[in-house]
Prior knowledge:
By secondary structure, the chain is mostly helical. It contains 21 helices and no strands.
Amino acid sequence: xxxxxEQRGFYKLSWLQRIGYASGDLAxxxxxxxxxxxxLIFYTDVYLLGGDPSKTAGLASTMLxxxxxxxxxxDPIVGALVDKKNPRWGKYRSYLIFGGLPxxxxxxxxxxxxxxxxxxxxxITYIGLSMLYTLVNVPYGALNSSLTRDTDEVTILTTTRxxxxxxxxxxxxxxxxxxxxLFAGKKVPYELVFFQGIGSLPSFIFLPLxxxxxxxxxxxxxxxxxxxxxxxxxxxxxVVSRYDINKYIVLIYIAQFIKGTGLTVAGGYAWxxxxxxxSYGEYKTGRRISGIVNSLTGIFYRAGVVIGGLVPGKxxxxxxxxxxxxxxxxxxxxxxxxxxxxxxxSVVGFFLLVFCFIESKERVVMKDKEEKNVKFSDLWVxxxxxxxxxxxxxxxxxxxxxxxxxxxxxxxxxNNLEAQSxxxxxxxxxxxxxxxxxxxxxxxxxxSRYELTDEKIDxxxxxxxxxxxxxxxxxxxxIEVEDPNKIEKxxxxxxxTEKNKKEKDxxxxxxxxxxxxxxxxxx
Length: 523
């Protein structure tokens, strides 16, 4: 029975395969988390974008908005490309190599200050980095749904992926300040290291328990529970940070841990919904266009990144944030130290992508006939007819807006907050606590509209494998648009054929009767 299910796409994966796939997310987070957490503070405090310390935040915010808006256009192009092409090394995993090497190179160039404080150089390198990240991330996301249809296996695979993604977040959040300080020959900013590290710590505790928690309380209730925990942590962080941070540093760490516990599920677990809406779309249309759906989720993700990238810089600009001098900052401004730190993360990231490429085996992919039928317009069509996908769209936009605001602002809170004006301090508190909490409440409302339970997804996947799902719309359309005159002509032709057949039968009978009479006469 188990072998039968595997033949129909319900594959069980080994732990080496799960870890191999998850290593791709670890690799991408070495780059993505570096950008999310430190690119803004690098441009404002180290690169001094534009040259004027009082204007760097506004310039950096505008640049992040423009570059990430370009990604909104680039994402669907990559999705359509991935679904139409079938490279020799694998439909999805090939891009881990083709895009992975230049991605690592551009991530290093982004933190090179040889052209400081050139705005043009910053735009070129950051645009290149973002486009290459999309070229790797979209097919990597589609690779998830091509490994197996089994919902329990998908949950374990996604949980493993999230676990490794959070390892990447921890290594970047806590590791970058340490390595930068060591390269710069400065004192390690342990307050920032602990703050960033504690925010990632809950993922190592709670992520392995997610399958158990979900089985006990259900998918939706699990979201509600962890979102509420995150809001409580943010409220606590806002209140405590209004007082002397150094004096109440333990309470700051506790609040950060509580917030991180909630965000473990509120943000990262959203990715498990993507294979579900892919299966739902296949059930409704007969076509498994994983690349299209992943490029759509990429658009939603990018929309959140666009908004989340714009908000921190603008809030800092509006509240009169000023780049601190070297002696005022806890995080070293040594540009060479930043360059070599990012070099290490990028090289390690590329080799992890190679490992992911080796261990990921594609098994559930669209057929060649379906590949040829993929059109760019399928993006809009899929969005309109796939109701759960629209809910996921809103959730992704909200979640990644929150995630980017939260990631970018943490370093500012712990980087000698007292050196800033009172208005800038309040702006940083809003970025760390108030705005993310409001977005979490919105997330809770959105997820309440999601209709695909685990039981329903299992039924859908089983129907697909048993060929009981809805007939492809292309076949239905051919019947619906058939020429009525042609149908009438066919009917008339059938009637005439039947009439001719009857006349022939009568003639044959008469001929046989004549033969019989002749025989009798002869006798």
